[in-house]
Design brief:
This protein is α/β, with parallel strands linked by helices and 197 residues long. It has helices at residues 5-17, 19-22, 30-37, 59-65, 79-88, 104-108, 129-140, 157-163, and strands spanning 47-51, 71-76, 94-98, 115-118, 146-151, 164-172, 179-187. Helix 7 links the parallel strand 4 (115-118) and strand 5.
Length: 197
Protein backbone atom coordinates (compact mmCIF):
# COMPACT_ATOMS: atom_id res chain seq x y z
CA UNK A 1 0.00 0.00 0.00
CA UNK A 2 2.02 2.92 -1.35
CA UNK A 3 1.42 6.31 0.35
CA UNK A 4 -0.36 8.79 -1.92
CA UNK A 5 1.18 12.25 -2.55
CA UNK A 6 -1.45 13.83 -0.29
CA UNK A 7 -0.48 11.45 2.54
CA UNK A 8 3.21 12.25 2.08
CA UNK A 9 2.35 15.97 2.28
CA UNK A 10 0.28 15.41 5.42
CA UNK A 11 3.10 13.41 6.98
CA UNK A 12 5.61 16.14 6.14
CA UNK A 13 3.33 18.88 7.55
CA UNK A 14 2.84 16.88 10.74
CA UNK A 15 6.61 16.44 11.02
CA UNK A 16 7.15 20.18 10.66
CA UNK A 17 4.49 20.93 13.27
CA UNK A 18 5.55 18.23 15.76
CA UNK A 19 9.00 16.84 14.84
CA UNK A 20 9.51 15.16 18.22
CA UNK A 21 6.22 13.25 17.91
CA UNK A 22 6.36 12.32 14.22
CA UNK A 23 10.11 11.62 14.02
CA UNK A 24 10.51 11.29 10.21
CA UNK A 25 9.72 13.38 7.15
CA UNK A 26 8.30 10.44 5.16
CA UNK A 27 6.32 7.29 5.99
CA UNK A 28 8.24 4.05 6.46
CA UNK A 29 8.88 2.09 3.26
CA UNK A 30 6.83 -1.02 2.52
CA UNK A 31 10.05 -3.05 2.51
CA UNK A 32 10.97 -1.98 6.04
CA UNK A 33 7.40 -2.53 7.28
CA UNK A 34 7.31 -6.07 5.86
CA UNK A 35 10.77 -6.87 7.23
CA UNK A 36 9.70 -5.84 10.72
CA UNK A 37 6.43 -7.78 10.58
CA UNK A 38 8.34 -10.88 9.46
CA UNK A 39 9.85 -10.97 12.96
CA UNK A 40 6.54 -12.10 14.56
CA UNK A 41 3.72 -14.51 13.72
CA UNK A 42 0.81 -12.14 13.16
CA UNK A 43 -1.30 -14.89 11.60
CA UNK A 44 -1.83 -16.49 15.01
CA UNK A 45 -2.58 -13.27 16.87
CA UNK A 46 -6.11 -12.55 18.07
CA UNK A 47 -5.28 -8.94 19.02
CA UNK A 48 -2.57 -6.69 17.60
CA UNK A 49 -1.87 -3.13 18.74
CA UNK A 50 -0.12 -0.53 16.61
CA UNK A 51 1.51 2.48 18.26
CA UNK A 52 1.99 5.55 16.08
CA UNK A 53 0.03 4.37 13.04
CA UNK A 54 0.52 7.60 11.09
CA UNK A 55 -1.19 7.33 7.70
CA UNK A 56 -0.97 3.54 7.72
CA UNK A 57 2.47 2.57 6.38
CA UNK A 58 2.34 -0.51 8.64
CA UNK A 59 -1.42 -0.83 9.14
CA UNK A 60 -2.31 -2.31 5.77
CA UNK A 61 0.55 -4.82 5.99
CA UNK A 62 -0.59 -5.87 9.48
CA UNK A 63 -4.16 -6.39 8.29
CA UNK A 64 -2.91 -8.44 5.33
CA UNK A 65 -1.41 -10.92 7.81
CA UNK A 66 -4.23 -11.03 10.36
CA UNK A 67 -6.83 -13.78 10.60
CA UNK A 68 -10.38 -12.81 9.51
CA UNK A 69 -11.61 -12.70 13.12
CA UNK A 70 -8.55 -10.99 14.62
CA UNK A 71 -8.49 -7.31 15.65
CA UNK A 72 -6.08 -4.41 15.23
CA UNK A 73 -6.19 -1.39 17.55
CA UNK A 74 -4.12 1.46 16.07
CA UNK A 75 -3.09 4.50 18.15
CA UNK A 76 -2.36 7.80 16.40
CA UNK A 77 -2.01 11.04 18.37
CA UNK A 78 -2.27 13.33 15.31
CA UNK A 79 -5.98 13.80 14.59
CA UNK A 80 -5.50 14.57 10.88
CA UNK A 81 -3.43 11.42 10.37
CA UNK A 82 -5.94 9.33 12.35
CA UNK A 83 -8.79 10.65 10.18
CA UNK A 84 -6.79 9.90 7.03
CA UNK A 85 -6.19 6.36 8.24
CA UNK A 86 -9.90 5.78 8.97
CA UNK A 87 -10.84 7.07 5.50
CA UNK A 88 -8.11 5.07 3.79
CA UNK A 89 -8.75 1.64 5.33
CA UNK A 90 -12.31 0.39 5.70
CA UNK A 91 -11.71 -2.89 7.51
CA UNK A 92 -13.99 -4.05 10.35
CA UNK A 93 -10.98 -5.54 12.15
CA UNK A 94 -9.42 -2.08 12.53
CA UNK A 95 -10.13 0.36 15.36
CA UNK A 96 -8.27 3.69 15.16
CA UNK A 97 -7.76 5.46 18.49
CA UNK A 98 -7.00 9.17 18.28
CA UNK A 99 -4.80 9.54 21.33
CA UNK A 100 -1.49 8.83 22.97
CA UNK A 101 0.05 5.38 23.22
CA UNK A 102 0.58 6.28 26.89
CA UNK A 103 -3.09 5.32 27.35
CA UNK A 104 -2.66 1.77 26.06
CA UNK A 105 -3.55 0.15 29.41
CA UNK A 106 -6.75 2.14 29.83
CA UNK A 107 -7.87 1.75 26.20
CA UNK A 108 -7.31 -2.02 26.14
CA UNK A 109 -9.11 -2.47 29.46
CA UNK A 110 -7.41 -5.73 30.42
CA UNK A 111 -7.08 -7.17 26.89
CA UNK A 112 -3.62 -8.58 26.14
CA UNK A 113 -2.26 -8.28 22.57
CA UNK A 114 -0.03 -11.04 21.24
CA UNK A 115 1.80 -8.53 19.04
CA UNK A 116 2.44 -4.81 19.45
CA UNK A 117 3.86 -2.91 16.45
CA UNK A 118 5.51 0.45 17.00
CA UNK A 119 7.17 3.04 14.77
CA UNK A 120 7.10 5.74 17.45
CA UNK A 121 10.26 7.91 17.51
CA UNK A 122 11.17 6.91 21.07
CA UNK A 123 14.54 8.67 21.17
CA UNK A 124 13.01 12.03 20.23
CA UNK A 125 9.83 11.93 22.33
CA UNK A 126 9.63 14.41 25.23
CA UNK A 127 11.49 13.25 28.34
CA UNK A 128 9.91 10.29 30.08
CA UNK A 129 7.11 9.67 27.57
CA UNK A 130 8.97 7.04 25.54
CA UNK A 131 9.97 5.17 28.68
CA UNK A 132 6.40 5.25 29.98
CA UNK A 133 4.99 3.92 26.71
CA UNK A 134 7.51 1.07 26.56
CA UNK A 135 6.96 0.14 30.20
CA UNK A 136 3.16 0.10 29.82
CA UNK A 137 3.41 -1.86 26.58
CA UNK A 138 5.54 -4.51 28.32
CA UNK A 139 2.84 -4.76 30.99
CA UNK A 140 -0.06 -5.33 28.59
CA UNK A 141 1.72 -7.76 26.24
CA UNK A 142 0.22 -11.26 26.33
CA UNK A 143 2.42 -14.09 27.68
CA UNK A 144 4.68 -15.21 24.83
CA UNK A 145 3.89 -12.01 22.94
CA UNK A 146 6.19 -9.83 20.86
CA UNK A 147 6.82 -6.09 20.71
CA UNK A 148 8.06 -5.05 17.25
CA UNK A 149 9.86 -1.70 17.11
CA UNK A 150 11.14 0.29 14.14
CA UNK A 151 13.66 3.06 14.81
CA UNK A 152 16.03 5.23 12.78
CA UNK A 153 18.75 5.01 15.43
CA UNK A 154 20.26 2.14 17.46
CA UNK A 155 20.08 4.21 20.66
CA UNK A 156 16.94 2.46 21.94
CA UNK A 157 18.61 -0.98 22.16
CA UNK A 158 19.79 -0.51 25.76
CA UNK A 159 16.33 0.50 26.98
CA UNK A 160 14.70 -2.44 25.18
CA UNK A 161 17.19 -4.87 26.75
CA UNK A 162 16.43 -3.38 30.15
CA UNK A 163 12.71 -4.13 29.72
CA UNK A 164 12.86 -7.43 27.78
CA UNK A 165 14.94 -10.58 28.30
CA UNK A 166 15.05 -11.30 24.55
CA UNK A 167 15.75 -8.59 21.95
CA UNK A 168 16.51 -9.48 18.32
CA UNK A 169 17.77 -6.76 15.96
CA UNK A 170 17.83 -6.43 12.18
CA UNK A 171 18.74 -3.49 9.94
CA UNK A 172 16.81 -2.58 6.77
CA UNK A 173 19.38 -0.65 4.73
CA UNK A 174 17.14 0.08 1.67
CA UNK A 175 14.81 2.23 3.81
CA UNK A 176 15.61 5.98 3.78
CA UNK A 177 17.04 6.46 6.33
CA UNK A 178 18.12 2.89 7.23
CA UNK A 179 15.71 1.36 9.74
CA UNK A 180 16.65 -0.58 12.87
CA UNK A 181 14.10 -3.32 13.54
CA UNK A 182 13.65 -4.98 16.94
CA UNK A 183 11.62 -7.96 18.13
CA UNK A 184 11.27 -7.91 21.94
CA UNK A 185 9.99 -10.85 24.01
CA UNK A 186 9.81 -11.94 27.65
CA UNK A 187 9.24 -8.70 29.58
CA UNK A 188 11.42 -8.50 32.67
CA UNK A 189 9.95 -8.06 36.13
CA UNK A 190 10.37 -4.47 37.36
CA UNK A 191 13.86 -4.07 38.84
CA UNK A 192 15.24 -7.23 37.26
CA UNK A 193 18.89 -6.97 36.07
CA UNK A 194 19.50 -6.66 32.32
CA UNK A 195 22.46 -7.43 30.09
CA UNK A 196 23.96 -4.74 27.88
CA UNK A 197 23.31 -5.44 24.18
Amino acid sequence: MRPQPSERALFFRSFLAHPRLVGAVLPTSARAARAMLDMADLGRARLVVELGAGTGSHTGHVLDRLAPDARLVAFEIDAAMADTLRAKIADPRLTVVTGSAEDVIEVLGGQRPEVVVSALPFTSLPAGIGHTILERTARVLAPGGTLLVLQYSPLLARELSRLFASVTRRVCLPNVPPAFLYACRDPRAPGAPSSTP
